[in-house]
Amino acid sequence: MKNANSKRVDYRKIRGYKEFLLILPFILLVLLFSYYPLYGWVYAFFDYKPPFPLSWDNFVGLKWFKSMVENEVKITKLLNVLRNTFAMSGISLLFSWFPMFFAVFLNEIKCKPFRKFVQTVTTLPNFISWVLVYAIAFCIFNSAGPVSSLGQKWGILEGPVNFLQSADHVWFKMWLWLTWKNAGWAAIMYLAAISGIDEEMIEAAKVDGASRMKVIRHITIPSILPTYFVLVMLNIASFLSNGMEQYYMFENSFNKDYIQVLDLYVYRLAMGSGGYSLSVAISMLKSGVSVVLLILANKFSKLVRGEGFV
């Protein structure tokens, strides 16, 4: 009996080691690409001038953190950038339910070939770079594009209009492009959650006379709400991280006051004006705020749902 128990314990240990070896490459990748770069935060405390190496002669302490708000011009610029960042992230958060409902109604398509076609067509844009997205937008919405031409033909527009060179509704237009690019990909997680719903429960509801809309309302949506809440909380944690590729491509002299978000501002500081240390200082503060938002979102989740996600 002892030999059997010892063999069982040895088997569990061996299996545990094997499972650890399976995830070890991913742990190493996380350490390499997520934690090792944090060493670069040291540049925020130095007056770094490439290509010279860091030395204690260039140590400036909290100089770059203070320089963010040292004059009214910098404060105004930073507030403008934060306004754009909060607006873009706020709109995305406000419409965060859209991929969930898209997945629900996509799941209701009974014709499998058509459903697969729709899912494929809506997922493919996620794999297109923002350079190509802007090229598509330029072909469609420039002054000689089909939208402008049809608008003139139908009498809606008086003359050629380049819709990309406009400061009107910039935040909403950026959300539309982001949704077009990511909605299909974001729906995949909800489709996976829907596939985990017990079919017997759905069949029982149909036997009791529930219509398709009632099944969606009382079974499908409540079953995938935990997934939705987790994704929303993670979006709150990354509220200040919009990325910069989309806004970098769509930025021009007409909309730059409304499209420059924090990530693009940091990129401009480092690559445009050589403010490497200042850009690192801003990134540090952004990361700190993101961690605080993550903790608050987790506490809010525990308070509302009774469970957190961290």
What would a concise description of this structure say?
The protein is an all-alpha fold and 310 residues long. Helix content is 70%, strand content 0%.
Please describe the structure with a list of short key phrases separated by commas or semicolons.
MetI-like fold, mainly alpha, single chain, globular, 310 residues
What does this structure look like?
The structure is a single chain. It is globular, with a radius of gyration of 25 Å. The mean pLDDT is 85. It contains 14 helices and no strands. The protein has 310 residues and is mainly α. Helix content is 70%, strand content 0%. It has two domains: 2-45; 56-305, MetI-like (MetI-like fold), CATH 1.10.3720. The chain has helices at 2-35, 63-67, 72-94, 98-107, 112-123, 130-141, 146-153, 170-195, 199-207, 212-237, 245-250, 256-259, 262-272, 276-305. The longest helix has 34 residues, at 2-35.
CATH topology of the largest domain: MetI-like fold
Number of strands: 0
Q: Are there runs of 5+ residues with pLDDT below 50, and where?
A: none
CATH class of the largest domain: Mainly Alpha
The major beta sheet can be summarized as:
none
Give the helix tally: 14
Report helical residue fraction. Answer: 55-70%
How do the helices and strands follow one another from N- to C-terminus? Answer: HHHHHHHHHHHHHH
CATH superfamily of the largest domain, called what?
MetI-like
